[in-house]
């Protein structure tokens, strides 16, 4: 898909540019958790480009799900601090989102200034894709850039309706993600390995179905694996899995099931306490009191062997209970195997839960594409497009 991208030879000095970024990252003790390859860090590069060319940059972003209410815990103050640190300049935060106070603040901006609007989801009209709200946002700028792939599956006012009221373009982050992901339609090389983890089977199943024919191998971990194991009659104990497992399995034809590689062995614990009893068991040995929390060594060996021969790899979602470092081994080993395969293979990785692990391993920059979107990446892969991308095509 070809998108309208911002022409680099355009004079933007003095222009008011609205740019939508994805700054939805964890906040811990008042600080954003966003490493050098995180969403905010990567967005900062494009904001910096615009500001250095003399534009007046008005940044739109959201944090969490405040549901149209002003929730102090979801304020973008930490995001403004992070951007200020990255850009080496003061990024002011406007407590208002639209209206006279913001218009005045924009009028007072100098060329190269950056203004961050408060959490766009504090305004209830955002998520209803309200035209009047989009028009009010449009009054702040001369043109609009969507650089937030991670929210392009949501037809909201700042991602969709706004495009109808200003000259609109896809930003570099967004256009690059679409460019790489769209190549899966025409340039997929085989063997093609699909690696899926995480919890939400309802978001992963459409992707598995979408690539049922193209994928040569489908490697499953996390709650996806325990769900399929449960559907096949295995005991999964107290492990997280979809209670409607058999219905999930029924949606997958036999030809797909034959491509799926499930864990051979797993790491189990009696609880999530730090002093819990931990052991490695073959899947047929899982007991009713066990919690499956990671891939076992034989499974890791099997998965990495499959990955080492691949020429296309798509991975979304952690393969264990990554909230605790002790259960990140499988995810780390698979991440390193995929990173090492980049070059001979196209490697596409997504899912916000895996980002801290990739940065911890120093491999975050070693993939063909490290997607900024989790749910957006899954929906794009399943549907081959997204609402907010369509409007920019």
- Total E-strand runs: 17
**Overall average residue pLDDT:** 92
Helix content: 25-40%
Estimate what percentage of residues fall within beta strands: 15-25%
Q: Supply the number of structural domains.
A: 2
CATH architecture descriptor text of the largest domain: 3-Layer(aba) Sandwich
- Note the total helix count: 14
Strand order of the largest sheet: 5-6-4-1-7-8
Would you identify the regions where 5 or more consecutive residues have pLDDT less than 50?
none
CATH topology type of the largest domain:
Rossmann fold
Rg (CA only): 22 Å
Question: Could you walk me through the main structural features you see in this protein, from its secondary elements to its overall organization?
Answer:
The chain has 393 residues and is of the alpha/beta class. It has helices spanning 39-52, 77-87, 100-107, 131-138, 172-186, 201-210, 222-231, 245-250, 254-257, 297-308, 329-341, 355-360, 375-383, 387-390, and strands spanning 16-20, 27-28, 31-32, 56-60, 92-94, 114-117, 143-146, 168-170, 192-196, 217-220, 260-261, 265-269, 278-282, 291-295, 312-316, 346-350, 369-370. α3 (100-107) links the parallel β5 and β6 (114-117).
Summarize the structure.
The protein has 393 residues and is α/β, with parallel strands linked by helices.
Blueprint of the fold:
Layout: E1 16-20, E2 27-28, E3 31-32, H1 39-52, E4 56-60, H2 77-87, E5 92-94, H3 100-107, E6 114-117, H4 131-138, E7 143-146, E8 168-170, H5 172-186, E9 192-196, H6 201-210, E10 217-220, H7 222-231, H8 245-250, H9 254-257, E11 260-261, E12 265-269, E13 278-282, E14 291-295, H10 297-308, E15 312-316, H11 329-341, E16 346-350, H12 355-360, E17 369-370, H13 375-383, H14 387-390
Parallel strand pairs: 1-4, 1-7, 4-6, 5-6, 7-8, 9-10, 9-15, 10-11, 15-16, 16-17
Antiparallel strand pairs: 2-3, 12-13, 12-14
């Amino acid at each position: 898909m070809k998108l309208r991208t911002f022409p680099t030879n355009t004079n933007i000095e003095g222009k008011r540019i609205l740019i939508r970024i994805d700054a939805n990252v964890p906040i811990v003790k008042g600080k954003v958790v966003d490493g050098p390859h995180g969403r905010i860090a990567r967005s900062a590069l494009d904001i910096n480009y615009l500001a250095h060319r003399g534009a007046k940059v008005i940044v739109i972003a959201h944090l969490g799900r405040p549901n149209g209410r002003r929730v102090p815990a979801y304020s973008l103050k930490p995001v403004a601090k992070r951007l200020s640190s990255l850009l080496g300049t003061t990024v002011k935060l406007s407590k208002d989102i639209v209206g006279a106070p913001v218009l005045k603040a924009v009028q007072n901006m100098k060329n190269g200034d950056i203004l961050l609007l408060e959490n766009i989801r504090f305004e209830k009209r955002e998520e209803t894709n309200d035209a009047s709200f989009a028009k009010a946002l449009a009054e702040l700028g001369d043109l609009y850039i969507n650089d937030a792939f991670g929210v392009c599956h949501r037809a909201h006012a700042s991602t969709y309706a706004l495009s109808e009221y200003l000259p609109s373009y896809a930003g570099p982050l967004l256009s690059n993600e679409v460019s790489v992901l769209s190549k899966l339609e025409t340039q997929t090389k085989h063997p093609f390995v699909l690696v899926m983890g995480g919890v939400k089977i309802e978001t992963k199943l459409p992707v598995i179905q979408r690539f049922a024919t193209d994928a040569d191998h489908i490697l499953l971990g996390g709650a996806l694996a325990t769900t399929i194991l449960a559907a096949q009659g295995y005991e999964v104990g107290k492990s997280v899995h979809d209670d409607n497992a058999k219905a999930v399995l029924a949606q997958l034809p036999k030809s797909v099931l034959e491509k799926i590689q499930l864990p051979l062995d797993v790491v189990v614990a009696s609880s999530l306490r730090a002093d819990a009893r931990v052991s490695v068991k073959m899947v047929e040995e899982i007991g009713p009191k066990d919690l499956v929390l990671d891939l076992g060594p034989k499974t890791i060996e099997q998965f990495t062997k499959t990955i080492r021969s691949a020429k296309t790899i798509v991975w979304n979602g952690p393969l264990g209970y990554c909230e605790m470092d002790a259960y990140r081994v499988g995810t780390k080993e698979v991440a390193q195997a995929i990173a090492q395969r980049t070059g001979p293979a196209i490697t596409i990785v997504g899912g916000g839960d895996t980002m801290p692990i990739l940065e911890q391993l120093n491999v975050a920059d070693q993939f063909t594409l490290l997607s900024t979107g989790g749910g957006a990446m899954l929906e794009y892969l399943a549907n081959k497009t997204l609402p907010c991308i369509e409007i920019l095509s």
